[in-house]
């Protein structure tokens, strides 16, 4: 049975739409991931598709590295596209759901995506469809978040009898999924990075401001306050609190 994830896609789109103005301030991890992704690209492509371009940080890096290349960038949040268009006027932008894209077969040499594919509701079907738009030996370069992301928050929520409500796929699951979609020479890697925030409230604010919403907004105010207090106690690092991100990088070719 094909993998399907139960997300309220319209709610996700609205959150990113609202986050567009402040996204660049709070997307420190995402920027690091984008920089690494661009370094991993093996061959100069003549055409690129950037999935979930947000404010265009990755799009700009791609064009900087490959100034002669035609770049098409897609996002379903119009406010994100507006920022991206201002940042990278030479790219082509499309306001559309990645999972509903209609693409010409074999039309891109590179498909790239940073910090986005964890939001796909039908990752298996969508990837299989996207791979068809890669040219022969076309490259895929993706970066996303793995299930150990925010494990500290998970632990606190578990103690309170709640769940985060975001089912992130492991590098291994993505590898299997990409192989099934027709990608070969797959490299699936995962690494954990620890960040420090002044306290749990600042961490949750930052996550919310970058458009990614997790369960805490669904908790009753008393439970949320208790969760934040526990997080501050359990994960204090002396100068603030620790937050882990698991970064999954995936590459391969058609
Ligand atoms: C965390 S941001 C990453 C933005 C950018 N790639 C970066 O590296 O900064 C995720 C972006 O994906 C977009 N997005 C999520 N799901 C999408 C979908 N199904 N179709 C189109 N865009 C989507 C969101 O609107 C958001 O701008």
Brief sketch in words of this structure:
This protein has 254 residues and is of the alpha/beta class. The protein has 10 helices and 7 strands. The longest helix has 14 residues.
3D structure, described in words:
It is a single chain. With 254 residues, the chain is of the alpha/beta class. It has a domain of 173 residues: Rossmann fold (3-Layer(aba) Sandwich). Helix content is 39%, strand content 24%. It contains 10 helices and 7 strands. Helix 3 runs parallel beside helix 4. The mean pLDDT is 93. It binds S-adenosylmethionine (SAM).
Structural class: alpha/beta
How many helices does DSSP assign? 10
Main sheet makeup:
7 strands, mixed
Q: N-to-C terminal Cα separation, in Å?
A: 23 Å
Count of strand segments: 7
Arithmetic mean of pLDDT: 93
Q: Percent of residues in helical segments?
A: 25-40%
CATH overall fold name of the domain at 9-148 and 168-192 and 246-253: Rossmann fold
Unreliable stretches (pLDDT < 50, length at least 5) are none
Instruction: Give the H and E element order.
Output: HHHEHEHEEHEHHEHHE
The distinct ligands, each listed once, are: S-adenosylmethionine
Portion in strands: 15-25%
Q: Taking Cα atoms only, what radius of gyration do you get, to the nearest Å?
A: 18 Å
CATH architecture of the domain at 9-148 and 168-192 and 246-253: 3-Layer(aba) Sandwich
Strand order of the largest sheet: 3-2-1-4-5-7-6
Shape: globular
Any idea what the CATH superfamily of the domain at 9-148 and 168-192 and 246-253 is called?
A: Vaccinia Virus protein VP39
């Amino acid at each position: 049975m094909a993998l399907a994830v139960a997300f309220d896609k319209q709610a996700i789109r609205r959150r990113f739409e609202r986050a567009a103005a402040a996204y660049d301030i709070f997307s420190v991890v995402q920027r690091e991931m984008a920089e690494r992704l661009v370094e991993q690209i093996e061959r100069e492509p003549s055409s690129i598709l950037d999935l979930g371009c947000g404010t265009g940080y990755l799009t700009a890096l791609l064009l900087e590295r490959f100034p002669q290349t035609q770049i098409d960038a897609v996002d379903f949040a119009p406010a994100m596209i507006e920022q991206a268009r201002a940042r990278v006027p030479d790219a082509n932008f499309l306001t559309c759901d990645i999972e509903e894209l209609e693409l010409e077969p074999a039309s891109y040499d590179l498909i790239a995506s940073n910090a986005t594919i964890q939001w796909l509701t039908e990752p298996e079907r969508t990837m299989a469809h996207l791979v068809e738009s890669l040219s022969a030996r076309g490259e895929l370069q993706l970066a996303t978040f793995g299930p150990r992301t925010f494990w500290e928050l998970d632990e606190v929520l578990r103690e309170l009898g709640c769940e985060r409500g975001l089912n992130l796929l492991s590098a291994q699951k993505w590898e299997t999924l990409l192989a099934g979609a027709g990608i070969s020479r797959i490299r699936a890697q995962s690494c954990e990075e620890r960040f420090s925030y002044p306290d749990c409230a600042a961490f949750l604010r930052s996550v919310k401001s970058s458009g990614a919403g997790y369960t805490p907004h669904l908790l009753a105010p008393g439970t949320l306050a208790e969760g934040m207090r526990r997080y501050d106690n359990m994960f204090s690092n002396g100068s603030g609190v620790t937050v882990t991100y698991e970064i999954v990088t995936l590459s391969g070719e058609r």
